[in-house]
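Lab notebook, bench 4. The sequencing result for the construct came back, and we need a structural model before the next group meeting so we can plan mutations. Quick request posted to the team channel:

Model the 3D structure of this chain.
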Amino acid sequence: MRSKSKFLWVAVLATVLAMSSHVLADTVIGVNFVSCWPNTAMSGKTFDGLSNWTDSVPIGTSDDAAKSGTGLVVLGSSNFITCDWSSKNVWYGGEEATSDQQLYRGYLDDGSPGVQVMIKGLSAWLASEGLGSYVIRIYQGTDNGTSFRPINIKSGDTILETVQSTNPWTTDGGLRANVYTSPLTADTIILQSLIRSGSSRGTISGFKIIGISKYIPINPVPKVGAEVPVNQVLSWTQVESAADLGITYKVYFGTDPNSFQLPLVKTTTTDSADFFYDPELVNSATYYWRVDTLEPNLPGAPTVYTGEAWWFKTQPPSPRIETNPVSVTVPAGTAQVQFSVSGINITSYQWYKDGVALTDAPDLYTGQNTDTLTILDAQVADEGFYYCTGDNSLNQPATSTSAQLLTERLVGWWRLDGNLEDSIDEEITGAAAHDGASVDPNFVAIGKDGGALQFFGGTDDIVTVSNSVDFFNFYPRGYTVSAWVNMPEKTSGDWGAFVSKQRREEGADWIGFILTHQGAGQAVHTLRQSFNDLGSGTNVDDNNWHLVTGTYNAVTKVGKVYVDGALKGQATNTGAVETNPRALIFGEEVSTSTISPYSGLLDDIRIWSYPLDDYTAAILWTDFNPGMTVCLEKYPMDVSGPEGTPDCIVNLYDFAAIADKWLTCNRVPESTCP
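Done. Here's the predicted structure in C-alpha cell form:
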C-alpha cells in the first residue's frame, strides 16, 4: 500500500522530493565501466543482478590492479535490459587520489565521434516494475581529474538533452554525476560522450537509471532550466498507464526556490486539455513550479504524490543574437552567398561589411535590413567580414559575430626577394596584401627564384605577417600552403617550422596548421584537431632546394603532403578544425614563444584559400624545373623504362620486360610446367 508523505523514489537531485512509502530498491539499474578492463568488445552484455554498485571493483593504485576486473558491475536486476557500447579503448585513469575516486578509475574512452552506449528494453522494464518513466544519472571520468566531455542523451537521432560535468569530484561514488532531470519513457536510449573541442577523447565511467512512479507527471514545458519568452504557457503530460485513472493535479508556482513555499495557483480537472497553467511573467526572472498528483483510487484517497521542483528563466527585454552568420569560401562568380542571423526581441536589422553599414545596392546585394543578407555574383571586391546588428524600441542593439567571405584563390605570395612584402595585390586586382615583419631578417642574393630568406633558429629571425590573425583563419574551410626550403644536413633531432598559424599554449588545446620538418629532416604537414603530423617520409635536409606543399580539403576531410610536386602522404580525419588567435608566421611554430625554430633557407611562400589538386601541386614544382616531370599515378603495368626502371609510361619497354619472362614457370612441382 502507498500512503501520503512517504518516499517514492531514490533521490536524484537535491530538489527531487520524498513522495511515497513504496521503496523502489529494485528500480535502480546501472553499469560501472571500471571493471570492463581490458575487454573492449562486450556488445550485448545483460544486467546480471549483481547486488552492489561496487561489487568486484578493483581498489588500488597500480595499473595491474585496475586490470583485474572481470566483468560488468551492475546495481539492480532486470531480465529485459541490455547494454551495447562501442569504444576504441577502456582506459585506466591513474590520477584518482582516494578509494572512492578509484572506484571510477577505469572508463570507456574513444576518439571521434566519441563513446556510444545504447541501453535497450527500457519499456519492458518499466512495465514489469509498474513504473511510468525514468531519469538517467551519468558518471564521467577525466583525463587528469580536471576536464569532462559533453554527453548527448539521444532517442534515435533526436538529442533529448546535452549534459556536462563541471566539478571533478563529489562525494557520490567519487565522480561528478550528471542528471537528466526530465523523466523519459523511450525504450532505447543512447548516451553519446562527445569529444571535447580540440581533443581526441570522449569518456563515460558509468551510469544509473532510476525508475519513477507512473503517477509522477512528465515532459514539463518549458524544460528544466530553459529560457523562455514572457508569454510562455506551462504544461505537462502523464504516462500512458496513468490515463483514465481520474487523476487531477495541483499546480504550485512562484519565485521562491523552496518548492514547499510555492503558492497553489491551480487545481486541474481530469481532462488532459486542462493540464496547463498560464502565468503572468516578467522579463529576466527565474520561476519555480511543481505539479502534485491526486490519485483518487487508492485507500485513503486522494493519495498525494509530490512532483519534482521544476524551474525556468525568462528572456531579457533587450535584443539578443542567438544564431550568428557562418564564414564561407566560394568560387569567384558564385551567384548568391547568404549570411543569416536569428535572435530574440529584434524588430530591426542592419548588416555591415568591415565595419561599414550596407546601404541600398541592389546590383551587389539584397537584404541589408533583414535577417538574411544575400551577396550577388561574389567577387574579390566582395571579400571581407560581415556582421549584423539587431535592435528594438529599447535602442540597445545586439551585434553578431563576424563572418568572412573569401573567394577560392591564391591569397598570399611572399617572394622574399630582399623584402617581406606580400605581392598578391600585384597578381590579383583588389586583393588585400599582408606584408611580413621581422626584427632582423637575413636575406641572401641567390634563392630558388631570385633572393631568399635565411633563418638561424633565433627569435629575431621570425617573420610575423601583418593583419593575419583573422584573415588566415579561413584554413578550417580548406587551404594549400607551399614553400621552397633548403636545409643543411641534419646534425640534431630538432623540428623546424617553415610556415605556421598555430596556438600552442600551456593548458590549452593545440589548434592550427604547420608546414615543417621533423627531427630526421623529413617534411611534415600538420593540421591540429585533424590528421595532426602527416609525414612525407622524404628527407629535405640535403643542401638542395625542395618544394614542400600541404593541402586540406574540408569537404572530404583529407589532408595531403607533397615533396617536389609528388604526393608523399595523405590522411582522412573527421575532427572539427577550429580557428586560432595567432598570427601567420614564417620560421617558427608559435608566435609567442620559441618552439621548433627553423634553420635554413626559405623562398617563394604561397597560400591558397582552397586545396590544390595533385596536378596543380605537381605543376608548382615543374614550373621551377623545366624539363623535369612528376608521375601522378603509377600504373601496375609500368615495370620498366629507358633506364630499366618505371618511367610513368606503359610502352614497349614494359612489354619487353614482361616478354622476357613470358614462358618462365615458377610452379611446384616442376613437372607441372609446360
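The mean pLDDT is 80.
Will bring this to the meeting.
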